[in-house]
Amino acid sequence: MKKSTRVNHPPPVELPPDNRPLVAPIYQTVKFEFDTLEETERYLRGERPGFYYTRGSNPTTRQLEQLLAELQGRDDCLVTASGVAAISHALLALTKKGDHVLCFIETYNPSRYLIRRLLGRFGVAHTLLSIEDLPGIERTLTSQPTRLVYFESPTNPVTRIADIAAITRFARASGALTVMDNTFAGFHQHGGYDVDVFVHSLTKYASGAGDVMGGAVIARAELIRAMRTDFGVLGGTLDPHAAFLIQRGLKTYFLRYKAQAASAARIAAHLAAHPAVARVHYPGLPAHPQHGLAAQQMQDFGTIVTFDLKGGAAAARRCADTLQLFALTSSLGSTESLIVTAQIMAARDLTPEQQRISALTPGTIRLSIGLEDQEDLIEDLDRALAAALG
Q1: Rounded CA gap, 187 and 42, in Å?
Q2: d(CA 356, CA 161)
Q3: Disulfide: which of 80, 222, 235, 265 matches 215 by Cβ 3.0-4.6 Å?
Q4: Same domain? 309 vs 202
Q5: Quick one: 111 and 204 in the same domain?
Q6: For the chain, how many structural domains are there in total?
C-alpha cells in the first residue's frame, strides 16, 4: 500500500473484549460502513442495528440520548444542535396544515415565534392564553380540535408555574398531545406527570459550562420513531464532540443544580427584603402566588430569580451596569451568574394587554445564579441595588 493511500486507510486498533475505556470515545466521524452491501441494505431496511451516517445517528450522540431519556423517565430521545432546534424540529414533526396549537403568553420568545409565525405560514392555527387561565385552557380544548398544547414551567422569565396535572388531564381528554419545555426545571423534575414530549436546551444545565450548544426531545418510543425521519431530514444534528462535552457536563449536573438552587433561594429571600425591589418572582418563596403548586410539583425550585425594581428601566440600567460578578448576557444554567434586563427580554410580538399579563415590566431583571460564593453574589447585588436607588 502506498503511503498516500495508507494515510486515508490507517491500521485499525481493536480493543480486546475485556478491555474497555472508562470514558466512551468520541466517534468523530460522519460515515460508518458494513462489511458487505447485503448488510448495508439490511441496515437501511431496518433489519439490523448499526450506524451509517451521523446526521441520522452516531454512537456518541446515541449514548447521550439514552442517558437523557432515562433521566427524564421516558423511553427515548433525539438530540439536536441547539435548544431552539429541538423545539422547531418537534413542532414541525408533530403538526401539519389545518392543525391547531394551544400556547401561552408566558413562553420563551423564540417558541412563540415558531408557533405563531413559522407554523402559521404553513397553515397551523394557534390560540394564545395565559398559563394561569385554566378555565380558558379547558374551554379551548373542549371547543376546538387541538393537535398539541405547548407550555413550559417554570416560565421564562417570570417563573410562573403551570398546573401540569390539570393541563395534561385536559389535553388527554381532548386527544391533544402535550409538549413541555422543561429546561428551567431540569431533567430530574416533572417526569412523573403525563407529559407526551419534553424538550430541553442542553446548552443550559446539561452542559453547565456555557461552552457548547445542544437540544433534546424526549418522549415515549412510538413518538420518537414517528419524528426520527423528519429530524434527520431537517438536519439540525448534534455534533459528536458537542455530545461528548454535554455528557461530560452531566456528570456534575445534580451537584450543580442543587447548589445553584440553594443559592437562588437565599438570594431571592435577600432581594425580597430590599427597599429597591418591588417584587421577586421565585417559586421557592412562600410569597410567590404559586408556591404551593410549585412545592407539590418540584423537588427543587430552580436557579432563576427574577425581580422588579421600583425605579423602572432607569434603575434596571444602573443595576445592570454596576454588577461585576453577573455577566450581562443571555442564556442560563452555567457555572457563572448571569443577568438580563427587560430591554433584552422584551416581548415585542405581544399586544399591550398580553404584555401586561406577561408581568414583564421596564424594571424587570432576570438572574441566573451560578456557583460563585453566595456572600460574594449578595455583596455584588447590594452594591448594584444601591446604585439602582440612585
Answers
A1: 35
A2: 17
A3: 80
A4: no
A5: yes
A6: 2
The dihedral sign for the CA sequence 37, 42, 44, 49: negative
Whether residue 346 is predicted with pLDDT greater than 80 in this model: the reply is: no
Report whether 228 contacts 273 (CB < 8 A).
no
Exposed/middle/buried for 192, CB within 10 Å: 0-12, 13-18, 19+? Answer: exposed
Cis peptide before 17 (omega within 30 of 0): no
User: DSSP readout, 237-288?
Assistant: BPPHHHHHHHHHHHTTHHHHHHHHHHHHHHHHHHHHT-TTEEEEE-TTSTTS
Q: Do 220 and 355 share a domain, yes or no?
A: no
DSSP assignment of 31-80: B---SSHHHHHHHHTTSS---SBTTT--HHHHHHHHHHHHHHTSSEEEEE
The letter for the amino acid at 204 is K
Q: What is the C-alpha to C-alpha distance for residues 99 and 109, in angstroms, rounded to an integer?
A: 21
- Are 164 and 234 contained in the same domain? yes
Residue 163 sits in a domain of what CATH number?
3.40.640.10
C-beta separation of 363 from 315 below 8 A: yes
For residue 380, the tally of other CB atoms under 10 A from its CB is 17
Structure confidence by residue, pLDDT tens digits, 271-313: 999 999 999 999 999 999 999 999 999 999 999 999 999 999 9
CA distance 339 to 380: 12
